[in-house]
Amino acid sequence: MKPSELYKLWAPEDSSWSNWAKPVLFADKSFAGGEPPQTMQWQSSNVAWAPAPESGTAIVLDLPGADAVWYGMALSQRGYRPVPLYNGVRGPASGGFELVQVDAIVFALHEVGETLAKLQLATNAPPVFLLDEDRFAGGSFADPGRFDNRWWVFPQDFPSANYLLSHGIRSVVLGQNRAVGPQRDLAHVLLRWQEAGIQILTCAVGDQAQPTPIQVERPDRFRALWYQALVLAGLRRNSAGGFGAVVPEPSSGGGFG
Asked: pTM score, two decimals?
């Protein structure tokens, strides 16, 4: 299957949420075939904790590796529309080591694309946004020669609160491995929604406990005009879109007088 065809399966033109699906991982032609590593099959992902799709709820899954894809597919069986927001590219076959491992995510997106298309989800099916919990690479230092594909999410990577409300979304469940507050970049998004009157809840997806409401705390530099510029200064853009580039070796010679 061509990368463009796979992307259209995940971001069909008639979906209310396709404008936010990130295309960067779908451009990797080297994963068009082959057997994916089975870290978790979506059929075994229990999503009994999720509200009914008609409840006016959107879901954000912030889980490591391909786990959000598996849980997102399980939720699609209940009527949710998975929306991949992965924005860090895979490194070249020859070159530095990746700071963020994305192979399992790419394989998972390929494996379940056709299954997702066969579901024929409603145009206005509520969204479940898919994120990689490890997108910061645990704060790893980008040594020269490494492929730095760390990435953050920003408010514009998600629909605005007004858009969500206009599509009947009144609450958002944050699904993580632990029922704790959001990661620092995601807090900038969720707090904006919260301020607009959207209820934010959280749950640990493996515990099967019902989501509980939280108050998103104000993150550093919230609504600061220079917040995004400051973050982007520490990331490496990729020419194909998204984030990812080899960290250059320090230049030799020269110096300060």
From this structure: 0.90
